Amino acid sequence: MKIVSFEDKNSVHLGVVDGDSVIDIQAVDASVPGDLGDYLRQTNGDLSALADLAKKAPATARRPLAGLKFALPVAKPGKIICLGLNYLDHVKEGPQKDNIPKFQSIFFRMASSLVPHLTPIERPQKSIQFDYEGEMVVIIGKRAKHLTMDNATDCVAGYAIANEGSIREYQRHTTQWGMGKNFDRTGSFGPWMVTADELPKGGKGLKIETRLNGTTMQSSNTDLLMFPVAESLVYLTEGMTLEPGDIVLTGTPSGVGHARKPEPIWMKAGDTAEVEIQGIGVLRNPVVDEKA
């Protein structure tokens, strides 16, 4: 099941994608929360009632997928957790090439740094070093602490895509990456959530590709994650409780702009960035300059 969030008359609705149309869940039952995160928190990740509503939806609840004004798949994630340096080939193309990580590199983003599918991402006034990073996103459905390898992925509601846009020189002002990862509207998240039952366990074996203006810049496979989804969820829950609606960005493969030869390639106004993950879809965003 593909669950999409979209805007309608200044409110956020949940939809279920069916071919080239979307079933508006609020048109079937107005009492259902419009934000997927709220729905997951209310049901502790049980999506069966949502599937049932979609099955019995009248024709009047359907609308074209084309022209939909997408919202973030989770409008108000409680936590946005990011894994850095999670593909070995990406580690080797960067400044940490002689320091292969033994543990997951964890940092965080704020919701204000992310925009939905088809919404422009913004190159900030203060930098031209605006880099793309295609990533698979894990959306948490159930409250979880002290997970084990046997049950780690049981808490996963589904998967989405991110372009974890990075402002490179600000990222490297200190050993902490937070500033360069949190400029307003520099990353994207979408286009929808594909439920975990539709994909391999842990999102394994999926081709991931980033394109800039149609040119492939990154091409890899989620099998190459140094710290796969299950291991990462186990590690995270050693210290923190994962809650429904939390999201985890799993890291980017090689081919990022700062490592391109002979010159770095940065995103700029007029570009179009796309991230495609097998079985999930394509996240597409135009690039604009931040307004003065």
List the SSEs and their pairings.
Blueprint: E1 2-8, E2 11-18, E3 21-24, H1 25-28, H2 36-43, H3 48-55, E4 62-64, E5 80-84, H4 88-92, E6 105-108, E7 114-115, E8 121-123, E9 130-131, E10 134-140, E11 156-163, E12 166-167, H5 168-171, E13 187-195, E14 207-212, E15 215-221, H6 229-236, E16 247-249, E17 272-277, E18 281-289
Parallel strand pairs: 5-16, 7-13, 8-18
Antiparallel strand pairs: 1-2, 1-13, 2-3, 3-4, 5-6, 9-12, 10-11, 10-16, 11-13, 14-15, 14-17, 17-18
Q: Could you characterize what this model shows?
A:
- The protein has 292 residues and is mainly β.
- The chain has 2 domains: 2-64, no CATH class; 80-289, Fumarylacetoacetase-like, C-terminal domain (Fumarylacetoacetate hydrolase, domain 2), CATH 3.90.850.10.
- It is built from 6 helices and 18 strands.
- A hairpin with a 3-residue loop joins strand 17 and strand 18 (281-289).
- The longest helix is centred in the first third of the chain and has 8 residues, at 36-43.
